Automatic annotation (TrEMBL):
Keywords assigned by UniProt, alphabetized: Signal
Protein name: Excinuclease
Signal peptide: 1-22
């Protein structure tokens, strides 16, 4: 490879990498609607309830601050579709963790992307780039 070819490859790679990172965006979508859709289509069986921080509390906390960090292929998908899909993955992980501990709820859920806590009583946070979408959640495993 000539120096000219190496330089051209470096420039093209740098430009592509910059454009991929520049496409990253933060989105906030309605949490309850997404959970309701996942239960309605059978992704979740509904036996474990999910509550964002600032909503229902109480019960006996069996484990505090369980974290799930999920990613999915977001290429060619709208932010809403990719984020809904990756949220389902996160909810499935929390659902399994709750059931494994004999619990029936996950409460005090906050978005926890890159360990940055973002609290909302109505929405979850999703990060979507050109190729990847990610959702991270942190919550308490509870038995009501």
């Amino acid at each position: 490879m000539s120096i000219k070819q190496i330089f051209l490859a470096a420039v093209l790679t740098t430009g592509f990498t910059a454009s991929v990172h520049a496409a990253d965006a933060v989105h906030h979508f309605d949490f309850k609607s997404a959970v309701d859709r996942a239960v309605a289509d059978g992704t979740l069986d509904g036996s474990v309830k999910f509550y964002l921080k600032g909503n229902k509390s109480g019960g006996r906390v069996l484990e505090k601050e369980i974290v799930t960090n999920q990613k999915t292929n977001g290429f060619g998908k709208s932010a809403e579709k990719a984020c809904d899909w990756v949220l389902r993955s996160a909810l499935i992980q929390l659902d399994k963790a709750a059931k494994a501990r004999g619990a029936n709820a996950v409460t005090n859920i906050v978005s926890y992307y890159k360990k940055n806590e973002n609290q909302s009583s109505t929405t979850y946070e999703c990060h979507k780039g050109m190729a990847v979408a990610g959702v991270a959640l942190k919550g308490d495993i509870v038995k009501f």
